[in-house]
Amino acid sequence: xxxxxxxxxxxxxxxxxxxxxxxxxxxxxxxxxxxxxxxxxxxxxxxxxxxxxxxxxxxxxxxxxxxxxxxxxxxxxxxxxxxxxxxxxxxxxxxxxxxxxxxxxxxxxxxxxxxxxxxxxxxxxxxxxxxxxxxxxxxxxxxxxxxxxxxxxxxxxxxxxxxxxxxxxxxxxxxxxxxxxxxxxxxxxxxxxxxxxxxxxxxxxxxxxxxxxxxxxxxxxxxxxxxxxxxxxxxxxxxxxxxxxxxxxxxxxxxxxxxxxxxxxxxxxxxxxxxxxxxxxxxxxxxxxxxxxxxxxxxxxxxxxxxxxxxxxxxxxxxxxxxxxxxxxxxxxxx
Length: 335
Description:
13 helices; Rossmann fold
């Protein structure tokens, strides 16, 4: 990135920026028509509105098409190793809690080899923003089925159809709606602790149209279910459909049958995760009505704050540590 240093006594006022300030000098190299372009544009346009500093912003990625993201943001960044971006971002966020740390990866990178790291980043509640680009395919390696590919998917590595049940993390936004993407990215940025945004992203070369049955403009109103905190969950071109509770879970209903009062009112702050989980499983396949928005936003204590409090308490009781003395302390032995 362009060298920008903050000196002691520098003003806390964030200088205004534009999209151009967040664009690097690197040529963007994705396949023409790739959904990654729209995600990159949405984020570059949003960053000036967030009041973020480029010199305090870091993008960490793993391996895959999405992993080229740090090259195109005029910030600090690291193109790391396969599946390990959440782990590297965890260390960075713990050592430098003053930074805005973003993690970018695809469904193969994040949910296959990186699945364990993703789970524990979420468990610890590190203050990082995770953007998961889901195109239901391995794109960089030329079209093998991924952890999110639908059952029966025919690819180069599943010539008679995948027999594996797909992994369904959440369903939050999609690359055909810049405004919605930006709102989800904003909510991610503002949330204290770990946030994860799954973006339905089209791979027009190896899995074109994977989400078009729900994201095409002609069907979008009837197939996307917007989740708005404090409002009944209702959708459809005329608001004719909705979501209601059923047998401990949720189900799709027609408003004419249950009335508005019979619809589930969305509460993203509910401590019990069961309703959010049920909503995330409402779409049984890629061609079924799918909820999008914030499923759950709960404050439960950020890991770095708790860990640094422990460090401060230990220093107050024992004084500043001596690494050299620790390395040469007992027990030691000679081989």
